[in-house]
């Protein structure tokens, strides 16, 4: 509804392959009364937490301790142990990923790994559309959005660990004719987080 209030017409929609992002995007389109197709890309998925997959934060802390969990969640290049390929949570055992090459699907990721796949996808599939003055809406996850923000805002590795991405609060980024960010804000100002750069 916050997007609808701005009367912004979306030209292209993108989501990850994960259901929460897909369902969020469907809710957005329902509110905007827009039924156009959208692109689902695994590269926009949440970070792969390896052997920690399937555990909630409390369970992770019980297993590893609070300090180690904080390191995994906020470090730039630290990866959890890999997830066994026999684990039912591993993407190679989930139907929606069957069309992808097994070499494309990681067993674990650091934030750096997530950044590399997200930014590569953005540069190859989205950046040119923005340069052509299209409005793009991306429905993704804390770490994939954080990765994209690191690239767009030119944040360093220390700054990126401090960037919080509130759930369900649209972030609007405007670009000038030279492709530079001219404005950025959260649409729900009451639940906005510090954008560090603005």
**Uncertain residue ranges:** none
Q: Which shape, going by the Cα principal axes?
A: globular
Q: What Rg is obtained from the alpha carbons, in whole angstroms?
A: 17 Å
What percent of residues adopt helix (DSSP H or I)?
A: 25-40%
Largest sheet: spatial strand order: 2-1-3
Main β-sheet, in a few words?
3 strands, parallel
End-to-end separation in angstroms reads 24 Å
Descriptive account of the structure:
There is one protein chain. With 198 residues, the chain is of the alpha/beta class. It has helices at 2-5, 19-32, 57-64, 66-74, 111-125, 127-131, 142-153, 157-162, and strands at 12-15, 39-40, 136-139, 171-175, 181-186. The two termini are 24 Å apart. α3 (57-64) packs across α4 (66-74) and α5 (111-125) crosses α7. It contains eight helices and five strands, in the order αβαβααααβααββ. It is globular. A three-stranded parallel β-sheet has the order 2-1-3. Strands 4-5 form a two-stranded antiparallel ribbon.
Task: Name a few traits of the molecule.
globular; 198 residues; 8 helices
